[in-house]
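Researcher: I'm preparing a figure for a lab meeting and need a structural model of a single chain. I don't have an experimental structure, so a prediction will have to do for now. The sequence is pasted below. Please return the structure as tokens so I can convert it later.
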Amino acid sequence: MKRFWPYLTMTAVILLAPLGVAQAAWTETVLFSFNYTDGASPEDGLIFDAKGNLYGTVEEGGGLESSGAVFKLAAPAAGKTAWTETVLLPFNASEGAGGNPYGSLIFDAKGNLYGTANLSGPGFGYEGTVFKLTPPAAGKTAWAPSVLESFGGPNGSYPYSGLISDAKGNLYGTTGFGGTLANGSQASGTVFRLTPPAVGKTTWTQTILSAFNGAVGGVPVGGLIFDKAGNLYGTTSADGRYSDGAVFKLTPPAAGKTAWTQTVLLIFNGTNGANSYANLILDAKGNLYGTTEYGGKFGFGTVFKLSPPAAGKTAWTQTILVSFNASTIGAAFYPDAGLTFDAKGNLYGTTFNGGAHGGGTVFQLTPPAAGKTAWTETILFSFNGTDGSGPAGSLLFDAKGNLYGTTEYGGKFGFGTVFKLAP
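Model: Understood. Here is the structure written out token by token.
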């Protein structure tokens, strides 16, 4: 579901900064370049373990049927600089845990990994899975995969995003298609929950929390987030009143009830953004922040903020923080991924295209100074193909303020990279 736009071949003139956008000299290090055999086309962000190792997914390559993989990048040993990749799970789309994982991973307290595969897998529909990877037993090296849910139409189809969990170990996610409406017709995607097995059992229980009817949004490609009250928030990438998607909220059932309540907070109409493929994030005041890959003032995507209703009101207020403009030389455009905060409230993200070399960017948005309203956009890094191209995943901070991410293309072999950016 990601939108692929080949990076442009540009002349040295593009090295000029785009008008009104600051430039900053962050230093990039390519930690790993995929060669297809060990994986290709990472679509989403990374996670750390307690030892500083990185984990992620690649959509393609990785062995077997080249249906993607889960990988680990081990941090360099003392005195060394090279990160070491290990393929933990090479997907086989015709059997096993599925194939073509697009989303990021999560850990549980025991070190198990959970994620989604977009296609195939055992079951009645072969339209994706939720999988678990259990770490090797003592003295072993192989991680053990298991399938927690197989999708196939009525229970959802094609999960494109990663999962989140609650304090009870329940997993929550979205499927881009499928599901069943109250009238029995096929829905335009779902929000689902997976409940761990009861004591002595092995089967996880799926519950559809919301099935989209298209009229108020559909095709949820991005993942979910919780607020402190247990409400879920997400985006739909298409359908809706203007076919440009929406932002939604799901409120847990009242005492004694089972149905979650869906509320549409914002419908995109092109002018205010179009087609959000990414997770939202929350600040301490309950404001939501996200991206749309298209739309906005110039049509090349936005970063937006949604503020909760004032006392006694019901409507959320949208503010466009940035409208990306591809017509400006060297500008960033088409943000495909979600955003990341630092401790000062600055926002960080990526654009799939644009920048000094056309291969995409990493950008920072600084909040307005006192008495001002405009956020300041700074391009921290522009990809040139050799060092990666087409960043499509969210960014990850370490304790030292370095950023980590992936590019879908480029690198030494052209099949994508894992990179680090140091201030």
